[in-house]
Amino acid sequence: MKPGDKLFDKIDSAIMGCKVGVAVFSPRYCDSYFCLHELALFMESKKKVIPIFCDIKPSQLRVVENGQCPPEKLPKFRLALEQAKNTVGLTFDSSKGNLADVVTSAANIVINSLIEIENEKHSMHRSKTPFLAN
């Protein structure tokens, strides 16, 4: 991005153009309007999301009314968060783990997910192609 770019326009178009997302949940994740906006957009667009729970358990994540988010957005943010909490993800405890290991695991999962998506796309394309009779 460059100065003068509209932040949400760039973020939204990037999310719509990607195939897999990674959401890194921290204890303060739900305090951020931007994080919740991005998560909601991923979930609404039915993108595959790989959650990484850093120093927090999925059950601890909650959208709260803290004045950071417009009240009309809260239901959609809560729904997206519930969907993410019910998605198998990775966990990281900074007091015990090595962040590099989690990053490597996440990268491998994203790569494998992209391969699966491409394979599904090709097999769907083949199933729609009619067979030619000799």
From TrEMBL:
GO BP terms: signal transduction
Superkingdom classification of source: Eukaryota
Domain (TIR) ranges: 1-85
Pfam assignment, any one: TIR
PANTHER family, per database record: COP1-INTERACTING PROTEIN-RELATED (PTHR31008), TOLL-INTERLEUKIN-RESISTANCE (TIR) DOMAIN FAMILY PROTEIN (PTHR31008:SF16)
Protein name: Disease resistance protein LAZ5
Organism: Prunus yedoensis var. nudiflora
